[in-house]
From TrEMBL:
Segments traversing the membrane: 26-49, 61-84, 114-135, 141-167, 174-195, 230-252
Record keywords, A-Z: Cell inner membrane, Cell membrane, Membrane, Nodulation, Transmembrane, Transmembrane helix, Transport
Taxonomy, superkingdom: Bacteria
GO molecular function, one term: ABC-type transporter activity
Protein name, per record: Transport permease protein
GO cellular component annotations of the record: ATP-binding cassette (ABC) transporter complex
Organism annotation: Acidithiobacillus sulfuriphilus
GO biological process, one term: oligosaccharide transport
Annotated membrane topology: Multi-pass membrane protein
Cell compartments where the protein resides: Cell inner membrane
Domain ABC transmembrane type-2 positions: 29-255
Length: 258
């Protein structure tokens, strides 16, 4: 396939609009989930556990936790969309096959799905910021700068999920990804405690995971500080996004065009 055909075109917007149109029919329950889950986390852990933890890295634990939950929620939402929802469209509903019967290309479908994963992650992240702001857990003029970071993180996690979807033969396959990739990132990438609490090897391994860099950018932005080493963190998220896109494109072309 020519190099130009691997680049997405305007057709990606058509895929994005199609996914948005379907999601709009489930808007209310979806938004309730986006607001409800973070509310439970903030109440149960932020206030409950925070009463015993007190301060962490010079801030109330609920503030420390809220910024971490924003990043982890983006990961979970974008991953779920890139796994279960995308696989349903690709396999169960045969939506991708129908799209390929039109002038759309595989690159258009993949780019549209990737953008939709990032948008779903952004919706989830912003919902948590709103809830956290209600409790006074986030503050400062840096908060708007967290929005593009959340979107980039959604692209990275969505791209990784779409690679797995391109390989999957059934929904059961996704349990490996959640158990071996998503859950370890959720537990060991600084969402609930500083990375300094990990042993040296654990800290080094955590630096290889995208959630670590998403947290390192989002937490200071939501607490009124400029992130340190921000170019490095942005570069890692961008590298994951581009690598995942190229790999997912090759795998989807092999699967859909065979």
């Amino acid at each position: 396939m020519a190099y130009a055909e691997r680049l997405p075109g305007i057709g990606a917007i058509a895929v994005l609009r199609r996914n948005f149109g379907v999601w709009r029919k489930l808007l209310i329950p979806s938004l309730l989930g986006n607001f409800g889950d973070p509310l439970l986390y903030l109440l149960a852990l932020g206030y409950g556990l925070g009463h015993f933890v007190g301060q962490m890295e010079g801030m109330p634990y609920i503030t420390f936790l809220a910024s971490g939950i924003v990043a982890s929620s983006v990961m979970n939402t974008a991953s779920f969309e890139g796994l279960y929802s995308a696989f349903t469209r690709m396999s169960a509903q045969q939506t991708y096959a129908a799209m390929l019967a039109t002038p759309l290309r595989v690159s258009d479908i993949l780019a549209g799905e990737l953008l939709w994963c990032a948008i779903k992650g952004l919706i989830s992240g912003v919902a948590i910021i709103v809830v956290a702001a209600f409790f006074g857990a986030v503050q400062g003029w840096w908060i708007p700068l967290a929005v593009p970071v959340i979107f980039l993180a959604g692209l990275a996690f969505g791209g990784m999920a779409l690679v797995v979807t391109a390989l999957a033969r059934s929904y059961d396959f996704f349990m490996y990804y959640f158990t071996l990739v998503v859950t370890p990132m959720f537990l060991f990438c600084g969402v609930f405690y500083p990375l300094d609490e990990l042993p040296p090897l654990g800290r080094e391994l955590a630096q290889l995971l995208p959630l670590t860099h998403a947290v390192a950018l989002i937490r200071p932005l939501l607490t009124g500080h400029a992130p340190s080493h921000w170019l490095l963190h942005l570069g890692v998220l961008l590298l994951f996004t581009l690598t995942a896109y190229v790999l997912a494109l090759r795998l989807l072309e092999r699967r859909l065009l065979r």
